[in-house]
Design brief:
The chain is of the alpha/beta class. The protein folds into 2 domains: 160 residues, Lyase, Ornithine Decarboxylase, Chain A, domain 1 (Beta Barrel), CATH 2.40.37; 254 residues, TIM Barrel, CATH 3.20.20. The protein is built from 13 helices and 21 strands. Strands 4, 14, 15, 16, 17, 18, 19, 20 and 21 form a 9-stranded mixed sheet that branches. The protein binds pyridoxal-5'-phosphate (PLP).
């Protein structure tokens, strides 16, 4: 225990943000899904992502139990590979995609297109063609100019189910860059100035489009249920006005995702059961007041399904002091996790694979990329004797890591390894120099 205050040491050993299957093994190692993390680092190299399959499935089931009667769409942009599409389908989740790429990957992996919702504030002709060709369940219209393009893409006599994305004027979300419910950002059609209502009227005029309801997504990393209740009220208000002026009763309300998770012990997470209770109560009450039948609820969680199921593994390459700070440099960084640089997110990485008795100290875990902003975990608490060759494991790495990874410095994106019941299997292999070379076709 060294000279460290008891509370600090307890904090460093807190596994509350790790997958439920996480176990302490010998020699300071951790097991996830019954598999040693240090062993995975040896076998698959570093950096690497580990995904606890059972945790992902459990989190999906939690939503289905908390929201009976609702349709739950996993937001694929948080993390997508063919196995993930299978897990979502097997658990009874639909899929929310925002590009032809995500759509094709899912459908060609066998995901039923009727359970897919296509989003996007700027859908390309290819996105729209693919959605119509595959027969996606719903397309969410995000601007009036999409209407004519969609109508033109639907075959004569055909009918495409659509929803309309609304900005309900609700401020929520963990950071400016992930707030999408307010009036002054690029997503959705505003209620206050009538844009949403006007666009709905135009969609209702189109025989080739079947408007099933309104959609909103307030933002991401939201930890309070309150903004969702406000959004329900405003969305029901809009749906009531649509009924009053056009006689159209829309059967569905999609509340998007954005449910926050704890990245470090002690941080708040959105309570899914409380969310379900609040949304249900508010929906019943608002609909009763407006004498509107209660619409079917759709939700689209991404981060909260997959984030806490993932762990990123890194090898320490260098340790040095600079001014008042200690820098622990690892073999990955902003190319496999741009989130700290984008949103200032904080993580709590942990030494694995060796037991240290050294007193903890604060250090900045930085990446290997050519940017001073390439910081993975600012002010992380790590053992004072951390040294090159050590392994670090960073929990809550399942969402918006690989899906936002880049080819910066040609380091290559890490592999994804699924663990379950004591077994590990490679889902996505490491990106190699050959991958980069094969795209580089000119000279
Ligand atoms: C990103 C997104 C989601 C999922 O957000 P999370 O914060 O990962 O839950 C859901 N719906 C839409 C439309 C989105 O853009």
């Amino acid at each position: 225990m060294g000279q460290a205050p008891a509370t600090t040491t307890a904090g460093a050993d807190d596994l509350s943000v790790w997958p439920a299957s996480t176990a302490r093994l010998d020699h300071g190692d951790l097991g996830v899904g019954g598999v040693s993390l240090a062993g995975l680092a040896e076998r698959f190299g570093t950096p690497a992502y580990v995904l606890d399959e059972i945790e992902v499935r459990e989190r999906g089931r939690t939503y289905l139990h908390a929201f009976p009667g609702a349709q739950v769409f996993y937001a694929a942009k948080a993390f997508l590979c063919r196995a993930m599409a299978h897990w979502a389908d097997e658990e009874g989740l639909g899929l929310d995609v925002c590009s032809a790429g995500e759509l094709e990957l899912a459908v060609t992996a066998g995901f039923p297109p009727e359970n897919i919702v296509l989003h996007g504030n700027a859908k390309s002709p290819h996105d729209i063609d693919a959605a119509i060709r595959f027969g996606v369940g719903r397309i969410v219209i995000d601007s009036p100019s999409e209407i004519a393009r969609l109508v033109a893409a639907v075959a004569p006599g055909g009918r495409q189910k659509v929803m309309v994305r609304v900005a309900p004027g609700v401020m929520a979300g963990g950071h400016d860059k992930i707030r999408t419910g307010t009036d002054d950002q690029k997503f959705g059609l505003t209620i206050t100035d009538g844009h949403a209502h006007h666009t709905i009227a135009r969609i209702l005029d189109q025989p080739r489009l079947e408007l099933t309801g309104a959609h909103c997504h307030l933002g991401s990393q939201i930890t309070s249920v309150k903004p969702y209740a406000t959004a329900v009220r405003r969305m029901v208000g809009l749906m009531a006005r649509v009924r009053d002026s056009h006689g159209a009763v829309l059967p569905e309300l999609n509340l998007g995702g954005g449910h926050g998770v704890a990245y470090r012990p002690g941080e708040p997470a959105l309570d899914i059961t409380a969310l379900a209770r609040t949304v249900r109560a508010e929906l019943d009450e608002s609909c009763a007041a407006a004498r509107l039948p209660v619409p079917r609820l759709l939700i689209e969680p991404g981060r909260a399904v997959v984030g806490p199921a993932g762990v990123a593994l890194y090898r320490v390459l260098a340790v040095k002091r600079g001014g008042q700070r200690v820098f622990v440099a690892v073999d990955g960084g902003m190319s496999d996790n741009p989130r700290p640089a984008l949103y200032g997110v904080r993580y709590a990485p942990r030494l694995i694979g060796r037991r240290s008795t050294a007193a903890p100290r604060r250090a900045d875990v930085v990446g290997r990329h050519c940017e001073a902003g390439d910081v993975l975990a600012a002010d992380a608490e790590l053992p004072g004797d951390i040294r090159p060759g050590d392994l670090l494991a960073l929990p809550v790495a399942g969402a918006y890591h690989l899906s936002m990874a880049s080819g910066y410095n040609l380091v290559g994106r890490p592999p994804v390894v699924a663990v379950a019941d004591g077994r590990a299997r490679l889902l996505v292999r490491r990106e190699s120099l050959d991958d980069f070379r094969s795209r580089d076709v000119g000279l």
